[in-house]
Each structure stands twice: as C-alpha cells, then as structure tokens.
C-alpha cells in the first residue's frame, strides 16, 4: 500500500511541477511589418498601381551618424485586396532597437518624402510586444487602414 501511495504522491508532484511551469508567462510579439500604400489626394487611386511611380525606383533609407545613406529592406507586393503595397519588416525593428525615427521615402529623382516612425518596446507581466507610438508622413498623421493593417500615404500627384 505504501508503494502505491508513494507512486501517487510522485505523480501528483510531477503534475504540479509541470502545470506550474506551463503557467509561467513568457511571451514575445515582434513588431508588425510596416505597410503603406501611396494614394493620390485627388483621385484616391494607388499611384504605384497607376504607373505614376515605378516599383524599381522606390526605396526607403535613413542617414546614419556620418550622413551616409543606409537602405531599408522594402518589398512591394499585393496584400489581401490591395495591390502594390510597400512592406518593410526591417523598419519597425530599426525604430525600436536602433532608435532611428526619421526615414526618407524615395519615389523618384524628383520626389522624396519624409516618414517619422516611432516603435516602442512594451513589457508587462513577463510579456514583450511592440507598439507604433507615432507615424507621420511629411509631418502629417496618415490614415491607418485596418483592412490593410497599414497606412495610406496621401500625395498630390503632379507630372514631372
């Protein structure tokens, strides 16, 4: 009988240890990719889809401490029902880890815009996540589109 009760106590003890370890909160949520579309202020059309800007000329960069240009990885692809979405996985990481907040969106040789992106690391109860504190496009707050999970950057298109 004592052998069985020792076995039951041992099983209960293992169960308690395992379940208490599972209740320990250890979680991490990386920042969402930065997504944006460039919309014509007058027509509401996507300026890349309309051929106003060429995909292969679009870049995002920042200036390092020595005023050297550092490019940010940028992908242009379709996302859900949106076409020609600019997507950067690197930009939110640079903002929160390297404290780089000001970026330049190079659309073509005549059109360079300013992006300000502030992503912060948040911690609570053993969990870490990332939050966009502030986003500005040419000193204006862009509209956040929930369906896109990103921003609509509004520009006035003028032919060069």
Principal-axis shape equals: globular
Please estimate the helix content.
Answer: 10-25%
- Major sheet summary line: 6 strands, mixed
Q: Summarize model confidence as the mean pLDDT.
A: 86
Distance between the termini: 92 Å
How many DSSP-defined strands? 11
Beta-strand fraction estimate: 35-45%
Which ranges are low-confidence, i.e. pLDDT below 50, for 5 or more consecutive residues? 9-24
Q: What Rg do the Cα atoms give?
A: 24 Å
Strand-pairing-aware structural class:
alpha+beta
Strand order of the largest sheet: 1-9-8-7-3-4
Tally of DSSP helical segments: 2
Taken in chain order, the helices and strands follow as: HEEEEEEHEEEEE
Count of domains: 1
Write a brief structural summary.
Helices cover 18% and strands 44% of the residues. It has two helices and eleven strands, in the order αββββββαβββββ.
Question: What is the strand and helix layout of this fold?
Answer:
Elements (H helix, E strand, L loop, with lengths): L1 H21 L4 E2 L5 E7 L18 E5 L5 E4 L2 E5 L2 E7 L1 H8 L4 E7 L2 E14 L2 E11 L5 E3 L4 E6 L5
Parallel strand pairs: 1-9, 2-11
Antiparallel strand pairs: 2-6, 3-4, 3-7, 5-6, 7-8, 8-9, 10-11
């Amino acid at each position: 009988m004592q052998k069985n009760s020792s076995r039951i106590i041992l099983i209960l003890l293992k169960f308690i240890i395992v379940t208490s370890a599972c209740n320990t909160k250890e979680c991490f949520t990386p920042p969402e990719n930065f997504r944006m579309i460039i919309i014509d202020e007058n027509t509401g059309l996507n300026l890349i889809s309309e051929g106003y800007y060429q995909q292969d000329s679009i870049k995002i960069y920042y200036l390092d401490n020595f005023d050297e240009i550092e490019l940010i990885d940028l992908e242009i692809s379709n996302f859900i029902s949106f076409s020609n979405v600019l997507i950067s996985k690197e930009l939110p990481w640079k903002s929160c880890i390297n404290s780089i907040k000001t970026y330049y969106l190079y659309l073509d040789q005549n059109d360079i815009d300013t992006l300000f992106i502030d992503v912060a690391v948040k911690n609570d109860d053993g969990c870490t996540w990332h939050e966009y504190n502030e986003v500005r496009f040419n000193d204006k707050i862009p509209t956040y589109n929930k369906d896109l999970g990103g921003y609509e950057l509004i520009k006035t298109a003028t032919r060069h």
